[in-house]
Write a structure and sequence with these properties.
The longest helix is centred in the first third of the chain and has 42 residues, at 2-43. An eight-stranded parallel barrel has the order 1-2-3-4-5-6-7-8, surrounded by five helices. It is built from eleven helices and eight strands. It has helices at 2-43, 68-77, 93-103, 119-128, 146-167, 184-192, 205-208, 214-221, 235-241, 258-267, 284-298, and strands at 54-58, 82-86, 106-113, 132-135, 170-174, 199-204, 225-230, 274-277. The protein is globular. The chain is α/β, with parallel strands linked by helices.
């Protein structure tokens, strides 16, 4: 009996030892593989992060003679995330809403131009599921003094900003050729004095090139920039052919330094806003070319 119990203890001890060795070996092997995998992962360059800048065109640029729904489908096929509608656009809002729901292509904003009444524009942007109304802040000329325009435009925006905040819509002032807000420092001051989270800048890259450098404006305006208009400008064509001829150049073929623009956008944290082409439109082939040019300019490919 004693011999049997002793033999049982030996067998149990040997079994425990084998189990211990087996589990230890497995743990060591797992650790080795884990270490090997971590080394391999460290040697593999990280994947390029997917950009969150969304690409769009102005709705009036789409001249393909098809239905609203087919226009939205075409935008999606060409890599656009959305569009932006002008208050003068002859389009059925209900048809647009159906196209948005069917394709996922967004109407990210509403173009108010220079109308004084902004409430309707805010309501339109809200209806489409957009986030902004583009505002052109007045015009300075011999009959409209600079300081008066400054005060009037701020008063107009202050009147509508509380409602815009309530609706979740931003009122974005664009830099245009209106002889007003002629420097980024002044534009920053104009926005800051409004003291509203719904006030911001719709920065037009091409509009600055005539008299400045977009990357400098971007760094100064910083987080005030909520959305971008994308187009080009050629100083040579301006000199040789006339002031407005400078715009008659394709995206990436003018004097905008796109690598510097991208660098400035990255530095200021512009990584998830909208970039909308504002150039001569056309049919499918033309829009495809615009899409590809925007990809190169903003490194979206």
């Amino acid at each position: 009996m004693r011999n049997h119990e002793a033999a049982t203890r030996v067998i149990s001890s040997q079994s425990s030892r084998r189990t211990f060795l087996k589990e230890t070996s497995a743990a060591l092997l797992a650790g080795t593989l884990s270490h090997s995998n971590s080394l391999f992962a460290a040697e593999t360059p990280p994947a390029k992060p997917e950009t969150r800048i969304k690409k769009a065109v102005k709705y009036q640029m789409i001249t393909e003679p098809v239905s609203v729904l087919d226009k939205f489908k075409m935008l999606k096929d060409l890599g656009f995330d959305g569009t932006e509608i002008h208050y003068r656009s002859q389009v059925d809002p209900k048809e647009v809403r159906r196209a948005i729901d069917a394709t996922g292509v967004q109407v990210h904003g509403f173009l108010n131009s220079s109308r004084d009444e902004l409430k309707d524009s805010i309501d339109q942007a809200k209806y489409y599921g957009g986030t902004s109304v583009l505002v052109v802040a007045g015009r300075v000329d011999d009959k409209h003094p600079y300081d008066v325009v400054y005060q009037q435009q701020q008063a107009k925006l202050r009147k509508h900003l509380p409602y815009a905040e309530q609706q979740g819509i931003k009122l974005l002032v664009e830099n245009v050729w209106n002889n007003f807000l002629l420097s980024p420092l002044e534009m920053a001051r104009f926005i800051d004095e409004l003291e509203s989270p719904a006030a911001g800048v719709y920065f037009d890259v091409g509009n600055v090139v005539r008299f400045g450098w977009p990357e400098q404006w971007i760094r100064i305006l910083g987080p005030r920039i909520v959305k971008l208009d994308i187009k080009e400008y050629s100083r040579k064509k301006q000199v040789d052919e006339g002031l407005w001829k400078g715009f008659q150049v394709e995206i990436t073929e003018g004097d905008c330094n796109w690598p510097e623009v991208r660098k400035a956008l990255n530095e200021t944290g512009f990584k998830q806003g909208w970039a909308t082409a504002e150039v001569k439109g056309g049919g499918r082939q033309r829009l495809q070319d615009i899409s590809e040019r925007m990809d190169r300019a903003l490194d979206l490919a």
